[in-house]
Structures are given as C-alpha cells and as structure tokens.
Design brief:
The chain is built from 16 helices and two strands. By secondary structure, the protein is an all-alpha fold.
Length: 356
C-alpha cells in the first residue's frame, strides 16, 4: 500500500516498469530502437501528473478499492499525454518541451551528430520529424496496452474502455480543430472555445475522472456529476495554461517566454483581444502575431495589447467563474468518501491557480 501523497512516485514507477518491458521487446527487433525507448523514458519523467491524479480520485470517488491496480491503469493516461505532446510539438514546430529539446529536435540532433561522425549526408530535420511521429504513435499504442494489462478484470476494463476510446478520439479531434484554427489565420471565439473543450477540458479532467469512476464501479449519476465538475475545471485549466504560454516564467513552464505568440496560437485569449482591441492595436497585433522571429520588445508589445484590450482580465474572470462552477458541482456530487471530495477540491485549485 502507498501513501496518497506518493501518487506521482507510483505513477513514475508504473511507467518505468512498463518501459523496461518494452525495451526488452524492442531490443529483439534492433538496437536502433533504444533511442525510441530512451526518448519515451525522458518524456514520461516529470510533469504535473494531473490526468492520472484525476483518474485515481475518480476511482476513489466511486468507492474503488485502492488495493486494486488503479495507478497502473491511471499511468496509461500519462503515456497518452506524452503521445499528444510529441505530435503537438511537431505540428507547432516547437523547440522545447519541459525545459529540454522537443522530441523531434532531439532526434534531429542525434541524426546530425551521426551524419557528422560518419561523413554521410541525409536530412536531420526530416529524420527528426519522422522519428518523433513514430514515438508519438508508439506512446499511443503503449497507452492502450498499459490500460488493458493493468490488472483489472474484464468487466471493469469494458466499462472504462468507452471513456478511454472517447478521450483518444476527442483529443485528436481537438488537435485537428486547433490545426484548422492556426491555418485559418482568423480569430474565431466559437472555434477557440471548441478547441478549449476537446483538446483540453475533456482530455485533462473529465475523461480521466470517467475512466477512474468506471474502473471503480461508479454509476451514471456519478459520471454525470463528475462531468459537471470536470468540464468547467478543464476549461479553467486550459485558460490558465494559455495565459502561462504568453506571460509565464520559462523556468516554471519549461518553454521559452512568448512561444505561443511566435506560433500564432489561436486561443480564447487572443480571440478576445482581436474582438476588443482598437484599430491601432489590431493593426499591430496582425503585423506581429505568429511571426517566429519575434524579439523581446515585440513580444512585450503583444502582451500589452492583450492586457490593454482586457483579454487577460476576461480570461482571469472566466477561470474564476468556471472554477467556482466546478467546485459547486463537486459539492452536489454523490461522493460518500470525504477524502476524495477534498482531494478533488484541492486538485481544482492546483490546476487553475498556477502563478504567472
């Protein structure tokens, strides 16, 4: 038995043990695959572990017995998260993830070093992108394997599978909506809100809660109540994340300051700014937003437009409102275990009150 404060440690233990097995399997195919396993190990180290935590407490809220292998099952959501991050970084051409080179940059550097040592040519950039896509695919496959070999009985896994399938479809759909939004070059509040829901809210909070509750034998009333808590909380979490992507401290976010402005991320934050900025501000915003070569002064100018248009305050207000909605729903939820109720309340605050 483990202390509940050790949940992140136990999640890491489950991931490490699983990847030990995968390393042996892939070594039989070829030693080259060690690079993929090591990249997966590094990518699954650290992070906030929010999705496994919500899964665990959804399980406990349903009355699940913590002696069952819930943390092994919950760890599959961290593997799914890594899959999404690797693919997201490729699509966004991001250089950094959690303070280290993004996976495609990591593989690019490996190939560049090999080419230099051997004197051969090749395309390190193309290799990096291809290798990262395959890493993301492997992690997606492994997420499914982790869930289905976690140790739960067939009936429990069948109950959870519809939610596990749903989250994978929804996050992929949300990614595509995000891609369309970036390609459109237009600020569309409706689309930004849909991306917010399907790329973040359902994937980060609601579905992990559902998966845990289903594994714990929770009924439809609890599932619905967890949605009433999880959806607004997931939206508040992503709104906070969007603010951090523009104003966050790189030493805490693990990404360069203003990266979302260079990438031209079409978020609720930027959609609000475009709707409410003055003509002069909008002209400056259109001139700068999405330029990968933005310098620190230009990033600061964009930040000032976001603040002066009251887009930042609008997002802060939405975070407060949605967090309050989530906590109100939690108060009404049919949860008998007060430890679970308190843990979910604490998670709500932790997910949404990260400092800029």
């Amino acid at each position: 038995m483990y202390a509940e404060a050790d949940i992140p440690t136990e999640i890491q233990r489950a991931l490490t043990s699983f990847l030990d097995i995968q390393q042996e399997r892939l070594a039989a195919i070829g030693p080259e695959l060690e690079e993929q396993v090591q990249a997966a190990r590094d990518a699954t180290s650290g992070g906030k572990r929010l999705r496994p935590s919500f899964c665990y407490w959804g399980f406990r809220a349903a009355g699940g017995n913590p002696e069952l292998p819930i943390l092994k099952a919950a760890a599959s959501l961290e593997m799914l998260h890594v899959s999404a991050l690797v693919h997201d970084d490729v699509m966004d051409s991001s250089d950094v993830r959690r303070g280290a080179p993004a996976a495609h940059r990591r593989f690019e550097a490996l190939q560049r070093a090999r080419s230099a040592a051997s004197g051969t040519g090749g395309d390190p950039v193309g290799f990096g992108i291809g290798a990262a896509i395959l890493l993301g695919d492997l992690c997606l496959i492994w997420a499914d394997e982790m869930m289905h070999t976690s140790g739960f009985d067939a009936a429990s896994l069948a109950s959870a599978s519809k939610f596990f399938d749903a989250v994978r479809v929804e996050v992929t759909a949300g990614q595509y909506l995000d891609l369309v939004a970036q390609a459109s070059g237009e600020a569309d509040m409706d689309r930004a809100l849909r991306v917010l829901r399907y790329k973040a809210a359902t994937y980060t909070v609601e579905r992990p809660l559902h998966i845990g509750a289903a594994l714990g034998g929770g009924g439809q009333h609890l599932i619905d109540s967890l949605s009433a808590y999880g959806l607004p909380l997931g939206e508040a979490f992503q709104l906070r994340d969007d603010l951090l992507g523009v104003f966050g401290d790189p030493s805490k976010t693990g990404k360069p300051a203003g990266d979302d402005l260079r990438e031209g991320k079409r978020t609720v934050l930027t959609a609000y700014a475009v709707e409410h900025a003055s003509e002069v501000q909008l002209a400056e915003f259109d001139r700068l937003f999405g330029r990968p070569d933005l310098d620190s002064d230009e990033i600061q100018l964009l930040r000032e437009i976001l603040q002066d248009s009251r887009a930042v305050q609008a997002c802060e207000n939405l975070i407060t409102e949605r967090t309050e909605d989530a906590l109100d729903a939690l108060d009404r939820a049919p949860i008998d275990d007060e430890t679970s109720r308190k843990a979910l309340a604490d998670l709500a605050i932790a997910a949404t009150s990260r400092h800029l």
